[in-house]
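Entry:
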Amino acid sequence: MNKLVSALVFTLGTAVTASAIAAPAYEHRYDDRYHAEHHDHDWKKEDGRWNDNRYKRINPSRDWRVGQTLPRGYDSSRYAVNYRDAKRLHKPARNQQWYKINGDYVLVNERNNRILHIIS
């Protein structure tokens, strides 16, 4: 009886292993819904290389307009500047702050984060 059970277990184990080895490789397919939901960045092929547009350099004087909301990543103190440090900046009014972003100065209303003025 013991030999019969051992032989049965060996046969089943061999069959499972053989079927796992012979199984076709899993093919990963992207349908448009999956891609749109989980990959919100754009990839473009330029000069034979894939570039991710999430990390492109922002040019505020070209990409932003007065009245728009300042993007969330740029309202940090690392971009904030004192108006006295640059000759071209006027004194900001109450609840306003100057930010220097990639060489451009942006005046922002601190209450609603709206762009008030852009100097390139």
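Helices lie at 2-22, 32-38, 60-63.
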